[in-house]
Amino acid sequence: MSTINQSYRKVVGSEVRFSLPYDSSCPCGSKVPANKCCLSPSGFFKQPCNTTPKGKVTGISREKCYANSLNDCCKKLSGEHYISQNLLHHLNINNSLSVSGFSWTGTDTKTVPPSALASNILCERHNNILSGLDSIALKLFHALDESDLSDTDDKELLLFSGHDLERWLLKTLCGLIASKSLALTDDVERGIQREWLEILYGKSEFSGEAGLYICKTTGHTFSGAHGVEAQAIVKKGKVSGLGLKICGYELVFSMTGFPTRVFDSRDFAYRPLELYAIRGKYEKSVVFSWEGAADLGTITLNLNK
Ligand SMILES: [Zn+2]
Ligand SMILES: [Zn+2]
């Protein structure tokens, strides 16, 4: 991740422009110069990671692997954490991992060890190929974590593929469904649709306005609390998405979309370009790159207490 001392950001009309010193390393964290990595004449684009298993389709459908309808399993079942393991261990610093909204936690927030979230729900082939998404989740957590932000005038620019983040949220949703961990009433249908698996494993793209939504309400003060909170989104009696709070940030992921951009009586942006956080002279932009439909735009967060 790169820290820049000079201003990197300029707003021209309704457009946000980023400029970096000539030889600075890419904000995606690759340590390669930006112009040899994700910076093109048309702006930043971070190539999404590959989630399609290598080689020929195996023809195996492993019982208990939630992706078994793709007939591309291996024989061995993996002990997968349905919220990325590395992220859980990071959140578990000082044993302060808190989880709520899951079926077995009831209405209270409970502190649990990460091992409590392990469940055998994918074969190794389908699990291992998603590891790139898990490391992105951890990077994003670091990018959003403001809990130990001291009085600094740093300028930070961090770049993520929005498509990777969406697939990580889809993976998390599938994991919560497969391990029966979502708090839902009995009449709600909670299947993992084949179409979702095809998107997760890179065989097709999100369609319509499915994908990532972030609340646009400005003036939010985020406290940076440690913990994960998850909530299923149900539409017409079926699980259609996931609300996830990480460090006080709220990510809303929907497989059906919100054409009005309103959810839970609040305004949301579909696939925003930038989360821009400021405190005094400190500035941070978490930038998401997108291909295809996106609202883009900036969501500004004031971190002042
Ligand atoms: Zn890059
Ligand atoms: Zn499998």
Which characteristics define this entry?
305 residues; eight-stranded mixed sheet; 16% helix; binds zinc ion
What does this entry show, briefly?
This protein has 5 helices and 19 strands. It is of the alpha+beta class and 305 residues long. It has one domain.
Structural notes for this entry:
The strands form five sheets. Strands 8-7-12-13-14-11-16-15 form an eight-stranded mixed sheet. A five-stranded mixed sheet has the order 1-10-18-17-19. It has a two-stranded antiparallel sheet with strand order 2-3. A hairpin with a 2-residue loop joins strand 12 and strand 13 (238-246). The protein has one domain. Mean pLDDT is 81; it is low at 219-225. Helices cover 16% and strands 30% of the residues. The protein is of the alpha+beta class and 305 residues long. Bound molecules: zinc ion (ZN) (2 copies). Residues 62, 65, 67-68, 73, 122-123, 125-126 line the site of one zinc ion.
Element layout with pairings:
Blueprint: E1 2-4, E2 9-12, E3 15-18, E4 39-40, E5 43-44, E6 77-81, H1 85-91, E7 98-100, E8 110-111, E9 118-123, H2 124-128, H3 131-144, E10 155-161, H4 162-178, H5 194-200, E11 211-215, E12 228-235, E13 238-246, E14 249-254, E15 262-263, E16 266-270, E17 274-279, E18 282-289, E19 298-302
Parallel strand pairs: 7-12, 10-18, 17-19
Antiparallel strand pairs: 1-10, 2-3, 4-5, 6-9, 7-8, 11-14, 11-16, 12-13, 13-14, 15-16, 17-18
Helix pairs in contact: 1-3, 3-4
This protein binds zinc ion (ZN) (2 copies).
